[in-house]
Amino acid sequence: MDTGEQEAADVVQDVAEVNPQYLQQLKDLDIPEDEARKALILTGNVSAEEAAIFYFDSLENQNADTDDDDFYYKMVFVVNMELSMGVGKIAAQVGHGAVGLYQLMLKDSKTKEMADKWDEYGAKKVVLQSSSSAHLLELQALALSLDLPTYLVQDAGRTQIAAGSRTVLAIMGEEEMVNKVTGKLKLLN
């Protein structure tokens, strides 16, 4: 077997070892499938969270090597898990958070520029878990203390949960700053 055949055999073996659930979670984060597979393999296929962290860290390192003058932005949605919302409800609430935060940012010249750069560099979005409404408020206070734009979604109460329930906190900013607020939270899965 020559080197090329061995590499092909190794790739086939690696593909078989990738957890399909983790792979789908990474693809849901807009990570290209080939990169998601590679990240899973290189992190020992332990979890989607570990692979995502590996992928985004390596992406940051590549970006830092190519252009030190640019900042890379992301929008993070922190879902209140104490409310026992269904999948569709969570998706709708995250959608409200994205639209609400983006609309707020377009109204101010400083945050509009940030939103434009975020969009230009791929509009990275990550959905994470929070344990409670109180935790969402703590995260929002920390984000605001770091001058990060936020939007707290409060439900209208027409379907699954009580009116005024705090469902999702949306945060936008330069990745390093956002990570100071949400870096230790788990991915929503």
TrEMBL record:
Pfam families for this protein: PTH2, UBA_7
GO cellular component: cytosol
Documented EC number(s): 3.1.1.29
Classification via Gene3D superfamilies: Bit1, DNA helicase RuvA subunit, C-terminal domain
Catalysed conversion reaction: an N-acyl-L-alpha-aminoacyl-tRNA + H2O = an N-acyl-L-amino acid + a tRNA + H(+)
Sequence similarity: Belongs to the PTH2 family.
NCBIfam families found in the cross-reference section: arch_pth2
Protein name as annotated: peptidyl-tRNA hydrolase
Species this chain originates from: Eleutherodactylus coqui
